[in-house]
Amino acid sequence: MSVEEPKIEEITENQETNEQAEVSQQEIPEGAQVRIISKNEKKARAAILKLDLKKVKGISRVTFRKKGNYILAISAPEVYRTPAGSYVVFGEAEVEDLNKRYAETAAAQQAAQQAAQSAGQSVDAEGTPSKDPASITADLEASANAPNKEDDDDDEEVDATGVDSADIDIVVEQTGVSRNKAIKALKTHNGDMVNAIMSLSS
Asked: Domain NAC-A/B: where (predicted)?
């Protein structure tokens, strides 16, 4: 009985390293958005792609919130979804400090307030110029004195032919509008009380 000895083969990665050397020697033009992927990341991607993951397109940014108002943000990520609903995200994570961002927005608001005050206007909390009390009162008086079109429509008598008077009474009772508006709403909705009440209520 002869036992065959197992053959041991040496696997060399010379070909792979030569190809990588050629790629690294090529010049990348300035301004090009090329990401160099490490060997370990390539292996991880290959292993994960064997798990029947589906690539999710259209995601431009992924953020993870951490303690202390810090955010891990991944711009232009590659996102894969498992059949169970979990996600795998590849990309370069950057740490963002929300406290710093809040300080920058507060400084911008303060600069806007100072610019508006130098122009002679007051500014509210959101940074928009606010009016003085005299101009607000003048605006309110002008809007109160302006004629209201809806009130003018109530003065006209509306023809109630084809509309049941009981339906009109129910619409007036439910919505609290004038009889003329109820008649117009019922005619608009072909006598349908429910739609007439809904249109007058909104």
From this structure: 38-102
Alpha carbons 72 and 61: distance in angstroms, whole number: 10
Is the CB of residue 80 less than 8 Å from the CB of residue 54? yes
Give the residue among 180, 117, 191, 183 at the shortest CA–CA distance from 151: 180
**90, 118 Cβ separation under 8 angstroms:** no
**Which distant-in-sequence residues (6+ apart) come within 8 Å of 87 by Cβ?**
56, 79, 80, 81
pTM of the model: 0.36
Cβ atoms within 10 Å, residue 160: 16
Q: Is residue 178 domain-resident?
A: yes
Structurally, the chain folds into a number of domains equal to: 2
Condensed to tens digits (0 to 9), the pLDDT of residues 14-60 reads 555 555 555 555 676 776 777 777 888 888 888 887 888 888 999 99
Range of the domain at 115: 100-133
Give every CB contact of residue 63 below 8 A, 6+ residues apart in sequence. Answer: 71, 72, 73, 74
Do the domain assignments include residue 74? no
Which DSSP category does 100 fall into? H
